[in-house]
Amino acid sequence: MTDQDRRQTIPFHVSGSGNRAFVFIHGFLDAGSIWDRVVGGLEAQDARKVTLDLPGMGALTADPGRIDLQRYADDVGAIVDALSVPVVLVAQSMGAQIAELVAAARPKQVTGMVLITPVPLQGVHAPDEMIAPFKALGGDLDAQRQLRRMLAPNMTAADLDILTELGRDVSASSVRQLVDAWNSGVNEAPSWSDFDGPALVIRGGADSLVTQEMATAIAKRFKGPPVKTLDGAGHWAHFEAAGQVANLIVEFIDQLAWRSGAASDWKNAFAQKSASTFADAFADDVVLEAAVLVKPVVGRDNVKRVMEAAASKIYARVEFTESANDGSQQYLQWEADDLDGVAYKGITIISRNAAGKIANVAIHHRPLGALLGFSYKLGQHLKGVIDAGHFATAESIPEQLRK
């Protein structure tokens, strides 16, 4: 079996649903299950939560393939590609190195990263005498427990037991390769990350491996807020202080608004011309305002009916030509033709709530004659479904636009 074949069969677990996703990448000697507490803290987020085991660890300890950062980035990247939705990568320790490689290769799909107690992409480059004890951890659970205790001095004994068990079956060969991977890092890693999106760096205040100086240097390579430090937490802050980490992730994505590619749900709904696809993107109390409407349409069911009618019964073509983002708002410039050959141009402004759902849509059509005709046609298609008072009357538009 080739490495490519293996990448296609690496299992991953998805909980939740939505038109966006968190992808969680664990670190050295761990497994995807280490994220369960953080995932639980994000249940209210309308997004898919994706966890996985990196080959050589977790359920994949028998994987015979090579272990290095690029192979892992290819494996995780294949999962991101398969999701086909905007993604925020959440990664810990050496997982941060992997996340940066994945994100740099997918700048339009990866909208941000949360890096917890991250190891720098360029590696640690600790000397042999310092790294030798790490390489000897394979199969030695007592030594693994001591290491975790050293890097997370405030962790409870019960939590130490859980984490130590994660590394039980990682082979000595895999451990040595893993240490070489995160210690060596990527040769000639750029001083400014190739990923142009925002990143949040979270550090455990009691972590003696990822120091404040190291975390600050990593954070400076990205756009994003200053390092967030969780007092008392160690190297496994996402396990020790999962609730706080989940809260920081929510704060981050509220500011981020999944802005890069965030309008993909709107564009997909137009492409599919489906009422249900529009409904999936909308908040319950969504408000539609438009130049073609005499007054706003309110509520998911009503708005989805209007949008489905416009997409499937009036437009022959809609092309999104430009886009811009500002926090929780997206701006889409477009041009279109209807089934009668009338041409339109316009701008759509999408505003989202904290959960990423579309809360308000403002659609501006031009020119005036065309938009009056559009309003009349829309009213005819929705007669008896949506109050006629929302639409232009026949008397208000030129005869040739009443088709």
UniProtKB/TrEMBL annotation:
SUPFAM superfamilies: alpha/beta-Hydrolases, NTF2-like. Residues 22-247 form the AB hydrolase-1 domain. InterPro entries: AB_hydrolase_1 (IPR000073), AB_hydrolase_fold (IPR029058), AB_hydrolase_sf (IPR050266), NTF2-like_dom_sf (IPR032710), SnoaL-like (IPR037401). GO terms for molecular function: hydrolase activity. Keywords: Hydrolase. Residues 266-360 form the SnoaL-like domain. This is Alpha/beta hydrolase. It comes from Rhizobium mayense.
